[in-house]
Amino acid sequence: MVGLVIVLVAAGAGAVWFGKNWHRSSTEDPGDYYGKQADSPRDVPTYAEPGGTGGAMGTALRASLTSAGFSCTRTPGNRSALLTCVQTGNDPAPFVAKVTMLTGREEVVRVDADVRPDPAWSKLDSGTGNNFGGEPDVSAVAYRTFTVLGLAAIPAGERPEFDKAMRKSLSDKSRETAQTSVADVAVMVRTSGPSSFELRRGEESGDLDYTPGLSLITPKEVSEALGRQGMTCHRTEESMTCTRGDVKVHLTFPRPRIKGPDQDITALTASAPAAGGSVNPGLRDTARTLTGLVVGKFGGAGPARSWAAGCFGDRTAETVVGASTLLCTPQLTGTVDSPRVVSHEFTVRPVRD
Q: Are 124 and 332 spatial neighbours (Cβ–Cβ below 8 Å)?
């Protein structure tokens, strides 16, 4: 009987210890099951061997895209790098074109392009009682963008095969592939919805081994920075919402479900109604603050903060900085000829490869 009592007491003590220590932070226990918890300090990464520029093809692609009016940003990793190029415009309809190029050392591993109508304008009424039919036609922008990529990446003697694939894709509304000596290139040019371009070299697609700026900030840092602006924050185990007047900030930091990963912020969004179609001044200040936090981890946040302050309007605006994608999106009502901005949203996401 005495032995049974001892076993029960020991079991109870073990349960108490387990309950106390299961959720200990990684600062208390380096062997924490989940890695660093949400508010554990993060170190800014340094890369011993930053990924290269992609050699001759990479240099040609960047030069061609820049000449075509794209704004390009390079995100370095330890053994690879990602070039992200973005262009927005209004002709023949509001559009967003994005090209990403992954390089490993001095070789281009893959190139992806996505050209689509500006999401904010896609559902507006044309003013004649009919809307765009789902999506406006920006296939001309896709055709032009993919031609720029083909000229830079494909040898001159092999371009007719690529041109043929693009024409067939547009006429048949199909995905077509052109086989060249440098890579297999797949294209889909659509008159409604997104068009895509994919260039793959070799069997291995490669990975971008980088640390996004969003994962370097903590919920505590966000709440402290926004608190200095007079915002009030309410936090749960995996999310936080901060408000002041009509301005609302929401961030999520889901607890990992498997062993190893840190508990990082995965999404950060700020929004506010647009009184009279103009951006809420509080939202503009909040966008600058959040940008400073994310980009400031890498230093030199001034230009990015200026961009964030001026990105709001009646078009979608996008840029990449600090290994993060910054996105400003209006919500519109009305018609194509007379759109009305009812609200704005500012989003920060990890840059994707």
A: yes
